[in-house]
């Protein structure tokens, strides 16, 4: 896969620049969060990004992101661009700029290198539960997160580093009508790092009549990170429904999602369970109220797989 991605990159980098554009945007949130046992964090995760470990049950939540998009279009119609992010939050203060994602795009085909988005991370519907709370709480609604095999074992854009796991990667995404395919690869060797850690992933997604079906696969040199994922979701009027299932290196997890919108208010809920002895079924409920201007009041409560309770409430907005 790595050779194919590198070859495609070379084909796209072949034209002179004609017109440039630089845009700035961002988002922020602030509020309160609660954890009935702050000494417990998601297993396998390097850190709990939402809440300090071992502190009081109730803490302040705040995060600010500035994002820069820069691009130019060649005479041949190829768009060359770059994206980077600056983040500040209560966990690490002012974290500075992340590593950049550089890309070339033409006629539905995009090739990117550096701080890549990652195929599994980009699967449509994977982060359905992100809208049901201010912070995402424990992210136990994701079928790709399991107590048995760990949380967040796939490549994703890093807001605080050079790339996923400190590594850089390369990815190819192609969209034709209602069909999208996205392949990605990261490796220590691409970044000149010691050791041999590699991840390769791919997904395909198809949209029809308000519904989306996505099938993804991830292979890693790290134990426990291989995944096969099926996501199905759609809308029936003001109601949303979703079904998700994943084989996480032998551990199966299933999740059901639902939402209902009443004017400016949206209510969301999920239930998720993995086939691991001694692990509780996770479930959560959240409400958001659209204030207009890209701002929302958001709050959620969740029972985690390790039998703790998490909750949050606050304001999120984009600009």
UniProtKB/TrEMBL annotation:
Q: Which InterPro entries match?
A: Gram_neg_porin_domain (IPR033900), Porin_dom_sf (IPR023614)
Signal peptide residues are: 1-19
This protein's UniProt keywords: Signal
Q: Which Gene3D superfamilies match?
A: Porin (2.40.160.10)
Where in the numbering of this chain does the Porin domain appear?
A: 7-302
- Its protein name is Porin
